[in-house]
Design a protein that fits this description.
Elements lengths: L12 H17 L1 H7 L4 H19 L10 H23 L1 H18 L9 H20 L7
Length: 148
Amino acid sequence: MPYLIPSRTPLTPEQVEQGFDYLLALQTGGGAYAAGRMEATPELAFTLLRLAEDIIWPVTAVDGESDDPCADSFALDEVGCVLLSALRDWARDSPTTAVLGIARSIIRFTVNVIPDPDHPDTADTLEAMRNEHLVLAHAFHSAPGAHR
């Protein structure tokens, strides 16, 4: 259901840094540690929601180019849609309380669905994701005519 993920401008490098800083603080030190390092704001909820979409959607979405999608492919697609829809509703209705929940959802998804064999530690996987997102953010926002 690609219509659930509207096309949008990629996050800025600063937003990527802020989002992953929070995720890494939560992963390494827990909720109280993360809360002490960064205030839960509606802007942070938005950033984490966008990161969740960027991380969850490509893993769960049915590939339109697949020759033979099976029933499990469609079930996984729907699970991803339901999860992202719930996170969006939470971020819309109570952004400051959504920050911790969205971050925990991203971490849990990373641990259980997309473990990286090259980075067995979740913090290492999150760092690798941060680097990938920063490359994209810098490429987009430094391109001629990019909106800043």
